[in-house]
Description:
The protein is an alpha/beta fold. Helices cover 24% and strands 26% of the residues. The strands form four sheets. Strands 3, 5, 6, 10, 11, 18 and 19 form a seven-stranded mixed sheet that branches. It has a six-stranded parallel sheet with strand order 14-13-12-15-16-17, sandwiched between helices. Helix 3 (153-169) crosses helix 4 (188-199). The chain starts with a strand and ends in a 10-residue tail after the last strand. Beta-D-glucopyranose binds next to helix 3.
Amino acid sequence: MGADIMGVAVFPEQAGSVHVTELAQPGPGPDEALVRVRRVGVCGTDKEIIDAKFGTAPPGAQELILGHEVLGTIEAVGDDVTTLRPGDLVTATVRRPDGCPTCRAGQSDMCLWGTYTERGILGAHGYMTESFTEHVRYLIPIPPKLEPVGVLVEPLSVVEKAYRQATLIQRRLAVWTPQTAIVLGAGPIGLLGTLLLREQGLDVYTLARTSAPNPAATIVAAAGAHYVSTRDTSFAELRSSLPNVDLIFESTGASALAFDGMESLGINGVLVLLSITGGNGRQDIPADAINRSLVLGNKVVVGSVNAVTEDFSSGVRRLSRFEHLWPGLTATLITERLRGFDDAHRIAEAATGGVKTVLEFDGSAPRAPH
Ligand code: BGC
């Protein structure tokens, strides 16, 4: 019998139903660890779930525990665990495989059957709890010096996968030395994408609606990228002022931008689409021009979702690089800290005007970035 613990839940069918609930916490199985939750990030997907546009409860349950961006400390491990020890900091991956061929081959992020589960999103409880258990294969160690930013590994893993996809796709070319990139959107994914592409040495233009100054614009500038507000410069104006655009990440949440991105992509370029757009919006698009330019320019448009362990691990390494290049900068993505269960009802309005909201669960004051 496990102890009862608290968790932040929704009724997935009911918009605005965030509440604190209780659930049983069993001890870890032989290959599992019990993780005490320190901090959980809130993202656009959580907001879609809160608005009842996305998300399902586990089979037989009414409630879904939210949260898929976690930083925690191992509290106990099962008898067969040798790779992690109590006290270790970890994050956890999100998706759990079904039995499809790609999942069985270790690529649950490319699941063919679509019957996977995702913790905190689809059919499995998430991490906005006092603690959770998980098989150690889904836990990623975080070095102690990355404690202030470890909660960003999950969103960074999404960008790592996006970049990995672009790189794999561009093996079609005998040479690909990307110089110029556009990032559409300056939310957490857009900003982490900006940092990654800057770390890779690209000239990066990050396009967002809000005029500078604002926290996102400050981060973009500090990483040596260019923040462009659509209030001052249109996407078309930006594109016409740039050399060949080799890579675009789309992360605005507005599907119209995906089509603008197709028009803006340079010869041999790759556009990676990352926005999970709810709703059934329709667009009037210049279909002939887009089609022609994709064909004549050998351009690739690719969707990318989720990430696997490899992307989480490269995200951890990348965070260390970010700290080396721009000490303390990545932590400034966290613009709002809420108190775990006390402020749970406020997560629906999280990050208005800011970048990333986190819920603090361990009761201790956040440490200053190194
Ligand atoms: C998560 C992904 C997940 C996707 C769709 C995103 O917010 O980061 O892990 O696959 O939502 O559910």
